[in-house]
Design brief:
heterodimer; A: 308 residues; MetI-like fold; elongated; B: 312 residues; mainly alpha; 2 domains; 14 helices; disordered C terminus
Chain lengths: 308, 312
């Protein structure tokens, strides 16, 4: 063993430092969305559901356009026709073509789902992030308001609003958004508060990054996952609520069609013509199942820590 | 703990107040009167005024509101607009029996089947029973309960004639609606328990128990199941919401004389006082359930501390 003073300085050679490569990031940069997508692609069930959903969305866009029949077109000579090559899903009590009606109805249901989720997202994210970023008294007041609102059962308010406002798609979307944003706001606030205290944000701040940059580079990308996942679960629940309201008779009214209206209509004549219930029921179940599995897949992909 | 409950009670009062106010003013905005429009307009004006006076509808809105709040504080919901001369509280007490029976049966069935499925799925992870449970869990939350109720009624009631199609005659009439309501509960609980169990099964104390030489069944029953069942309390709130929402449609499908069908009928007939009474009672019940579950949970599981939870 060498003694301490035996080590001469010339045993050490200064390593060559490539100044320009010091800051080089070895891995290609990925945004939060790309990263999630790569992981989602490995989940076969979720991808399969994504494809089914895309097919359903395409059908709801184009099937009513290319069908020979219009969703509101009545023909009293062909009422209650069973499915046939001419009317793929049969006709209802007014001789309306069920194929055209189902895809038109699916279109309305999907529009309601997406619009409600988008409004939710907009209000919730704004409220949650403002509350978390400003902090202090503003945050306290905003949180008190949320704590009062969170106890209100959504359905009660939605039903009351539906009774007061004129029936229509916009009413449903507004009613759903008024009650729905609270959850999103809470999630976003919690996520931002958690991030604010984490070391990498502190590091960025120490390095002199401006608040704006921190929000853009660190807070938003790390919150996108939570937002996407929550929005993904909002869509099917909005579709369900609309169908439910239409089923108990306070949602959309005939001759407009949504999946809920069709199911309600089919239920009235279930005894003799079960296909009028079963076809729209299958479509709504398919939509709900796919959204639910895709939502789970997205949760696993965006937030691996939450994987269970 | 005491301070926490006081704080929560304060919020509950505030929330209920918001619900009360929202319900009242939204009801006031409703188009039309609660009375049959045609027959009401046929009455001579002085009689119209009399009818309005009897229900206190002739006064300015804020007086109506104050009276309404005053009455509710006394526990009175006023007279039904549709069932003339009947107090809403009486109508509600008549109707609550069937709803509670069906709801309780649904929760019980949901809990039992959900627990069994969830435990089996976690115990036999990645086997047939696990996949089956996951399929049930996804379908259970995806199939709208009114669709399920309608299909059950059609196949089991009508086609095969095993159980009564509808109406409230004997206990057997409550079976189909209970099953229809329980499916989503089964799905929620099975999924929840499975996740919890998979988590618990990886804990160190399970390994210790195994290392001690306990039999597999004992490890499962004494350690894993006991620790995974407790958190189920936390999803009691969503389950109650689920059952209530479901009952609105399911009670109508099976013609059950319960609260759900009363609510839907009152909506169709503009029976203000009944609608308000049901909204407020249900909201109060829901809020209480949430409070009780939170408190119970912290009492049962000492690892949960309410106060520190709030501080986060």
């Amino acid at each position: 063993m060498m003694k301490k003073d035996n080590i001469s300085k010339d045993l050490f050679i200064k390593a060559k430092v490539k100044e320009d490569e010091k800051d080089k990031i070895v891995r290609p940069k990925l945004t939060a969305l790309q990263d999630g997508w790569i992981r989602l692609k490995k989940n076969k069930a979720a991808i399969c559901c994504l494809f089914i959903l895309i097919i359903i969305i395409l059908l709801s866009c184009f099937a009513p356009v290319f069908s020979k029949y219009k969703y509101y077109e009545t023909d009293y000579l062909i009422t209650f026709n069973s499915p046939s090559p001419d009317h793929w899903f049969g006709t209802d009590q007014f001789g309306r073509d069920l194929w055209a009606r189902i895809w038109y109805g699916a279109r309305i249901s999907l529009i309601i789902g997406f619009a409600a989720a988008f409004l939710d997202l907009f209000v919730g994210v704004t409220y949650g992030s403002v509350s978390a970023l400003i902090g202090g008294k503003t945050d306290t007041v905003m949180q008190r308001i949320i704590e009062v609102l969170i106890g209100i059962p959504h359905l009660i308010i939605v039903i009351l609003l539906m009774m007061v406002l004129p029936a229509g798609i916009i009413t449903i979307v507004v009613a759903l958004a008024i009650t729905g944003w609270v959850n999103m706001a809470r999630l976003v606030r919690a996520q931002i508060l958690k991030l604010k205290n984490q070391e990498f944000v502190l590091a960025a701040r120490v390095l002199g990054t401006s608040n704006k940059e921190i929000i853009k580079k660190h807070l938003i990308p790390n919150t996108v996952g939570v937002i996407v996942i929550n929005a993904m679960f909002t869509i099917p629940s909005a579709i369900f609520t609309e169908a439910f309201l239409s089923f108990i008779g306070i949602g959309l009214q005939e001759p407009a069609a949504s999946l809920g209206v069709l199911i309600n209509n089919g239920y009235q004549v279930l005894h003799n013509y079960p296909y009028l219930l079963i076809f729209p029921a299958v479509v709504i179940i398919l939509i709900m199942v796919c959204f639910s599995i895709l939502g789970d897949g997205l949760r696993d992909a965006f937030d691996p820590r939450m994987r269970k | 703990m005491f301070k926490y409950i006081c704080k929560r009670l304060l919020y509950i009062v505030l929330t209920l107040f918001v619900i009360l106010t929202a319900t009242f003013f939204l009801m006031n905005k409703l188009p039309g009167t609660p009375f049959d429009d045609e027959r009401f307009s046929m009455l001579p004006p002085e009689d119209q005024a009399l009818v309005l006076e009897q229900y206190g509808l002739n006064e300015p809105v804020y007086i109506q509101y104050l009276k309404y709040v005053q009455n509710i504080l006394k526990g009175k919901f006023g007279e039904s607009y549709v069932y003339a001369g009947q107090d809403v509280s009486d109508v509600l007490t008549h109707r609550i029996g069937p709803s509670v029976l069906v709801g309780a049966q649904a929760v019980l069935l949901g809990l039992t089947v959900g627990l069994i499925l969830g435990i089996l799925a976690a115990w036999k992870h990645n086997t047939g029973i696990d996949y089956f449970t996951m399929i049930v869990a996804v379908l259970g939350v995806s199939v709208p309960n009114f669709v399920l109720a309608a299909l059950l009624q059609y196949f089991i009631g009508l086609k095969w004639g095993i159980l009564p199609v509808a109406f409230w005659e004997s206990w057997s009439s409550s079976i189909l609606p209970s099953i229809a309501l329980s499916v989503s509960v089964i799905a929620m609980i099975a999924r929840f328990i499975r996740t919890e169990m998979l988590d618990v099964l990886q804990q160190d104390y399970i390994i210790t128990a195994k290392a001690k030489g306990l039999s597999k069944l004992k490890v499962l029953m004494n350690h894993a199941v006991r620790n995974s069942i407790i958190p189920v309390i936390t999803i009691l709130g969503p389950i109650i919401v689920n059952i209530f929402t479901g009952s609105l449609a399911v009670e109508n499908i099976y013609s059950i004389p319960g609260i759900g069908s009363l609510f839907v009928d009152s909506i169709k007939m503009n029976d203000y006082s009944t609608i308000m009474a049901i909204c407020i009672c249900y909201s109060a019940f829901y809020i209480l359930v949430i409070l009780v579950t939170d408190v119970l949970y912290s009492l049962i599981d000492p690892r949960i501390r309410l106060i520190s939870n709030r501080a986060e």
